[in-house]
Design goal:
The complex is a heterodimer. Chain A is mostly helical. Chain A has helices spanning about 10-15, 20-40, 50-75, 80-100, 120-135, 140-145, 150-165, 170-185, 190-210, 215-220, 225-235, 245-260, 270-275, 285-320, 320-345, 365-380, 395-405, 440-445, and strands at about 100-105, 105-115, 115-120. Chain A folds into two domains: about 10-385, no CATH class; about 390-475, no CATH class. Chain A is about 60% helix and about 5% strand. A three-stranded antiparallel beta sheet of chain A has the order 1-2-3. The radius of gyration of chain A is 25 Å and the shape is globular. Chain A starts with 9 loop residues before the first helix and ends in a 32-residue tail after the last helix. By secondary structure, chain B is an alpha+beta fold. Chain B has three domains: about 55-75 and about 170-250, Penicillin-binding protein 2a (Domain 2), CATH 3.90.1310.10; about 80-165, Penicillin-binding protein 2a (Domain 2) (Alpha-Beta Complex); about 255-290 and about 315-485 and about 495-620, 3-Layer(aba) Sandwich (Beta-lactamase), CATH 3.40.710. Chain B is about 35% helix and about 20% strand. In chain B, the strands form seven sheets. In chain B, strands 2, 3, 4, 5, 10, 18 and 19 form a seven-stranded mixed beta sheet that branches. The chains are: A mainly alpha, B alpha+beta. At the A-B interface, helix 8, helix 12, helix 13, helix 14 and helix 15 of A face helix 1, helix 2 and helix 3 of B.
Chain lengths: ~475, ~625
């Protein structure tokens, strides 16, 4: 059966990951509340009201929601075919930025799209994830594992945007790119020669940097800028430099620390109210939040993030499509590393690099891109049925429940599923799916219901499996 | 698509391991973050809260008013005046064009040069954009009114009220009153001024210095919120300042004016004291400086010229100038000798014009000798040989002990001025300490006529005159009469403080006083020029040699170089029967005491008894020349 690019199916909603979306929306709302509080005290700048940024962010939230919903209708596997085009498009945007981009603070990072200013480097991050996911999920690599030659194309895919972003210059985003890609590599299987090669290259590079003057060489060629080094050193000793980056860290730490457990209340943070906290709307939004809502508020935010990541991982686990898995993994790690680096940065454990906190920090492009990423993740989760031929063995949740509860009786009117466990055949005949979603019971009536399973032995594991890519018509109701 | 297709055990297991590690990484990351937040917010939360609070609050001080200094009749000698300064906050004045426009408008309104204003504006802006700086520092009340009426038209301007010291007259007793100066680093480090910080003013001389604690008052405090740019936003708390106490001096300003006028431009000092309680009625030292130069800070060149002046106008000669007291010391020595029992009033010594001691001849001022001299004649004619003999019999150690104990010589009694100096009373131990040499018996003789190593300040001369006048009572000389708070309530009245009582036969004391009376009133007395009609004055002249160079022996005063001329002393009290005032006059390098100092003292005493005598105009204060000038004697 031909896969439909835009398909609406009952299982789309059935497999929709609500916790993922809910935690994202809650995070964005928390970010909006925080932005509102920070904006309250600040005077109007450049002829705009104090709330102009809040309104903008709200507008971006709306636009992002629309875009996300649109993306949900779109089958993510199509991205795989688009990946090369996406890569060329993203790299082209970066090159364009280099020539006609808008410069602020010594860095050319922005492009104007009519009245809207946006950062192409933000779009490039998920783009790179798509490209690499497509590459690694190719047939040869997924079956045989990564060889030494296989690693060269991804290096090119990474190198081009990395170099272009580094030239802007934006060390933070380019470094984040590397962090994001890392788990994708780890998820692929390395062949032994590749492991040896990578180890030796890493060893040689570190030796060169440490002992053979590589550091000076990089500095002389202006590949590493002095302020970037200074940033690293400042981080080591923030108390010494009271007016530069170190001051930012001190103020940020004071803000977070002064929140204590319960926080200082809505609009009660003096660090941000009186302007001591640098960039309280963007990079240091978490500090403002922790100051006003304390440890508990920070805990809520972190829990939401954790919930988001866990749902994303459950999607990876349940997905049967390697491209989908890798795509989800890449996008999740993108969000995760942004969050992790940002929070480490504002708590003084990491140098100050301009990486915003996803969903919470003010920034239209960033919000849009992270919302698109999450909707892509949800997209992968929704469409896992496309690759399912055995709902039980491919549903880890079912596995877990079976192991712990050993349910032998099922609720009537639910889909009866084939038990499959070569290790423990005792429970095999009576097994039923404990996967109950009551509200779907009624929905299914309107759609075509699954065939009633009368005899569990129909699904015996001895039965031959279907050929690759085939989908039984009865799975879709005939 | 291997994952999608078959239950391949191997691959599934590998993936499970990866998920395990991914979760480990995720949990580790969240643990790190939570741990860090716990450390910052829970473990160190109080610390950071304090840090944040000191971040946004500023404790600023509210200046207090310094106490006034008044004379004994309650007339204000030093007042506080208010000066207005126009402050500008560059950031609030607008951009570059706005600043130029503001300078032009303010300049037109207040009749100032707009270019100057703009230049000053730029220096203020270069220092800080947000902190207000002093733009115009001499706003008049008219300027203030103009500004206030157009307040809405200017942004970024504010007016600061400054309290300044305003002396009654810049040349009225500058040494006694003193001036304020910025607190020095050494004073800050000394820990004596815990409430003060850099830039605060404290008294640096005179009463302003010695009574600083009383005059200062307590500063108020204001807790303000402030933003990261240092802009003050709102006031949280306020603690009001307490004004300093007023100090009422013992100075009689009429006598002070008279003394200063009579001293004129001659280098010297005058002390007028009440012998009954040692209240200093006038204390003049010349040359002097102008207090007006010091209000609002003395300029560097002014200060340098004052320091470089060879006549040291900053020095208060009345308490800080140490001179050989000359023949006036005979009052102290005769009283000491009588109290010790070395002589009686009837003891007679023969003056042959000189006394031989070893191979050295110590001459009397009268080469021809006074013949047989008793106490009365020795005082009246100031016979040196008589006192040589007294000193020889008494010995330097007994002289020193008596004179320190009974007259406060060689030590300070605390006359409310920190510049007071002890003078010098030599004895054997001192000689050994100072020169590592034993005392020669011959060195006692110059000391006994107030020469040699002996040094005394004019105040100390006034002290032993007063002891002779009041019957042997030595009090602490005082400049401060009482201290009142800013509302006029009495805080402290300074009572006379007896230091020592001379144990002497009253008849002997009476004889000394008779001798001093005859100095002025009898023919042949040395101090006849201080005689007054209607009041009997008792006194003693003194002519103290600066050097005993033989080559100037025959020269007149005018014939000698200025620095080798004798100091002229005169010390007197009146009325002789019931003394109520002591006057001591010292004229540096002026020649004989009877000829030069006695008339000055006479006029001061006359002014004391005739209350209508006053000096309406103070002697004009002359700007000290940078180079020594001839009018005070050629150097």
């Amino acid at each position: 059966m031909k896969k439909k690019r835009f398909s609406l199916d009952g299982r789309l909603l059935e497999n929709f990951n609500w916790p993922l979306m809910l935690s994202m929306v809650l995070l964005i709302i928390v970010g909006l509340v925080n932005l509102y509080s920070v904006s309250l005290g600040t005077p109007a700048t450049r002829g705009e009201g104090p709330m102009s940024e809040f309104v903008k962010q709200l507008a971006f939230f709306g636009a992002g929601s629309l875009l996300s919903v649109l993306i949900l209708f779109f089958d993510y596997s199509y991205l795989r075919k688009l990946s090369l085009f996406l890569f060329v498009f993203g790299a082209g945007l970066l090159v364009l930025t280099h020539f006609i981009g808008y410069t602020a603070g010594g860095a050319t990072r922005w492009l104007f799209l009519g009245p809207v200013r946006f950062q192409p480097s933000e779009f490039v991050k998920p783009m790179l994830v798509v490209v690499l996911a497509a590459y690694f999920s190719g047939k040869e690599i997924s079956t045989k594992g990564l060889t030494v030659l296989n690693i060269l194309p991804p290096l090119f895919f990474i190198g081009v945007p990395f170099g272009l972003i580094l030239m802007q210059p934006d060390l933070g985003t380019s470094g984040l790119l590397l962090f994001t890609i890392f788990p994708l590599f780890l998820f692929a299987r390395f062949t032994k020669p590749l492991i040896v090669t990578v180890a030796s290259v890493v060893l040689a590079a570190s030796l060169w940097l440490a002992f053979f003057g590589g550091f000076q060489y990089l500095q002389e060629k202006e590949i590493i800028r002095p302020y970037q080094i200074q940033r690293v050193f400042t981080h080591k000793n923030p108390e010494e430099d009271h007016n530069g980056k170190g001051w930012q860290i001190i103020q940020s730490k004071s803000a977070i620390g002064s929140g204590k457990i319960l926080g200082r209340g809505f609009h009660g943070g003096t660090q941000q109210k009186y302007g001591f906290l640098p960039a309280p709307k963007t990079d240091f939004a978490f500090s403002a939040l922790a100051e006003e809502w304390g440890f508990l508020g920070a805990l809520v935010v972190l829990s939401l993030f954790y919930c988001l990541f866990c749902s994303a991982f459950s999607i990876i686990r349940r997905s049967k499509d390697l491209f989908g898995k890798l795509l989800t993994l890449g996008l999740t790690s993108l969000i995760f590393f942004q969050m992790f680096i940002n929070i480490l940065m504002v708590t003084g454990l990491f140098p100050v690099v301009g990486i915003p906190l996803p969903f919470v920090s003010y920034g239209g492009t960033s919000l849009l891109v992270t919302m698109i990423s999450v909707s892509l993740i949800a997209n992968v989760g929704m469409r896992r049925y496309l690759f399912q031929d055995d709902p039980v063995i491919e549903n880890p949740e079912v596995w877990r429940k079976r192991r712990s509860l050993r349910i032998t009786e099922s609720v009537p009117l639910t889909r009866r599923l084939k038990p499959y466990d070569p290790d423990d055949p005792d429970i095999f005949p009576e097994y039923r799916l404990p996967h109950v979603r009551p509200w779907l019971k009624h929905m299914r009536k309107s759609l075509v219901s699954a065939p009633a399973i009368t005899d569990a032995r129909d699904f015996a594991w001895t039965k031959p499996l279907r050929p690759e890519g085939s989908v039984r018509p009865e799975d879709f109701g005939g | 698509m291997p994952w999608g297709r078959a239950p391949e055990e191997k691959e599934r297991k590998g993936e499970g391991r990866r998920f395990f590690w991914i979760h480990v990484v995720l949990l580790t990351a969240f643990t790190i973050i939570l741990g860090r937040l716990w450390v910052l917010q829970v473990a160190m939360g109080d610390e950071y809260l304090k840090k944040s609070e000191t971040n946004y609050t500023r404790l600023t001080q509210i200046p207090t008013t310094r106490g006034l200094i008044k004379d004994r009749d309650g007339r204000v000698l030093v007042d506080n005046s208010v000066s207005y300064e126009l402050l500008v906050t560059p950031r609030e004045a607008g951009d570059k064009a706005g600043a130029e426009d503001l300078s032009r408008r303010v300049g037109a309104l207040l009749m100032r040069d707009p270019d100057d204003l703009h230049k000053r504006f730029r220096t203020i802006a270069a220092r800080s954009q947000y902190r207000p700086g002093v733009w115009i520092n001499d706003l008049s009340r008219a300027d203030l009114a103009l500004l206030e009426s157009r307040r809405h038209a200017f942004s970024g301007l504010s007016v600061q009220v400054n309290s300044m010291r305003k002396p009654l007259a810049g040349n009225f007793a500058p040494h006694v009153i003193g001036y304020l100066g910025e607190i020095g680093q050494a004073q800050l480090n000394s820990g004596l001024f815990p409430d003060l910080g850099p830039g605060d003013l404290i008294g640096q001389s005179g009463i302003e210095q010695s009574m600083d604690r009383v005059l200062q008052g307590e500063k108020g405090q204001r807790l303000m919120t402030v933003d990261s740019k240092g802009r003050l936003l709102e006031e949280l708390e306020r603690e009001y300042p307490t004004p300093g106490h007023n100090v009422i001096l013992t100075i009689d300003s009429r006598m002070q004016r008279v003394a200063q006028a009579l001293l004129g431009e001659k280098a010297g000092a005058v002390v007028v004291m009440d012998p009954r309680n040692f209240e200093i009625l006038a204390m003049a030292s010349s040359p002097y400086f102008n207090l007006d130069d010091f209000t609002g800070g003395v300029s560097a060149e002014r200060w340098r010229s004052l320091l470089d002046d060879p006549f040291h106008p900053m020095e208060n000669r009345a308490v800080g100038g140490q001179y050989p007291p000359g023949s006036t010391f005979k009052i102290a020595l005769s009283l000491s000798a009588l109290a010790e029992g070395v002589i009686t009033p009837e003891t007679v010594f023969h003056c042959a014009g000189a006394l031989r001691m070893g191979d050295h001849l110590f001459g009397c001022w009268n080469r021809h000798g006074h013949g047989a001299v008793n106490l009365h004649r020795s005082l009246k004619e100031s016979c040196d040989v008589y006192y040589y003999e007294v000193g020889r019999r008494m010995g330097v150690d007994r002289i020193a002990k008596r004179v320190r104990e009974s007259f406060g010589l060689g030590r300070t009694l605390g006359a409310d001025l920190l510049t007071e100096r002890p003078g010098l009373v030599p004895d054997q131990a001192w000689k050994l300490r100072r020169f590592q040499a034993p005392w020669n018996a011959g060195e006692t003789l110059p000391v006994s006529i107030g020469q040699g190593y002996l040094l005394a300040t004019p105040l100390q001369v006034a002290q032993y005159t007063a002891v002779a006048a009041n019957g042997g009572y030595l009090y602490r000389p005082r400049l401060v009469k009482e201290i009142r708070d800013f509302e006029g309530r009495l805080a402290e009245r300074i009572e006379p403080e007896l230091v020592h009582r001379l144990d002497i036969n009253p008849d002997y004391l009476d004889k000394v006083r008779k001798g001093l009376e005859s100095v002025v009133n009898d023919p042949g007395g040395t101090g006849g020029r201080a005689r007054l009609a209607g009041v009997r004055v008792a006194g003693k002249t003194g002519t103290s040699q600066v050097v005993s160079l033989k080559r100037f022996q025959g020269y007149t005063t005018q014939g000698r170089p200025y620095k080798y001329r004798d100091h002229a002393w005169y010390t007197a009290y009146a009325p002789a029967e019931n003394p109520e005032v002591v006057v001591t006059v010292l004229l540096e390098h002026s020649g004989g005491g009877g000829a030069n100092a006695a008339p000055v003292a006479g006029k001061i005493l006359e002014a004391w008894f005739d209350k209508s005598v006053d000096v309406v105009f103070m002697p004009p204060y002359q700007v000290q020349p940078d180079k020594p000038a001839g009018w005070r004697g050629e150097l």
